[in-house]
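Progress report, Aim 2. The chain analyzed during this reporting quarter is listed below.
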Amino acid sequence: MRGGRRVVLLCVPALWTLVSCGIPATGVVEAGGPAHGLVPMLRVYLVENGSLVAVPRRPVGAVDAESAVMNLLEGPTETERAKRLTTLLPPLTAAPTTAPTPLVSVPPSTAPSGGSAAEAAASAAVSVDARSGVVSIHLRYVGEELSDLATAQLICTVAEAQRTTDTGTGAEAVTVKVTNARGRSVEGSDERCPEG
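Predicted structure tokens for the chain:
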């Protein structure tokens, strides 16, 4: 009986500690819907003091090469600008607002169903195609040559997204080809991209 009394005496201080820790007893707390798996993360490469920096972002949709390019071309967010991050890529708003007059009458294009006019304009200004181990980016709105660092922003961002979507790439380098409106192309891989 004495051993049983000792156990009870030892348990009382332990229970008192748990009860007095200041955590109120509550029922079920409603805090939104149930979890639906992992939220995809995207890393875009911005510039800080002349060097590439990987910046994590949560994209609205799936992570793929096209969404990575569009996300990067939006430029730094307010928070990123406050951290002195910038981009050397011309924004999509720099695209010419007037098209040359066509020789043949063509009906005006409309945005695809469910998409906005801005999305349609962006997709006309930029195309991304991933085939045969090469991701091709055509920047139809950029006439001048991009700097090496601006090109590296695209290459590293797209290669990172491609690795996320294509699990078969493994240790192989991802090749990215960037072409401007004049047809000038630069090709590179993610071998020299900084780790995030």
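The chain is about 30% helix and 20% strand. Residues 2-19 form the longest helix (18 residues). These observations will guide the mutagenesis work planned for the next reporting period.
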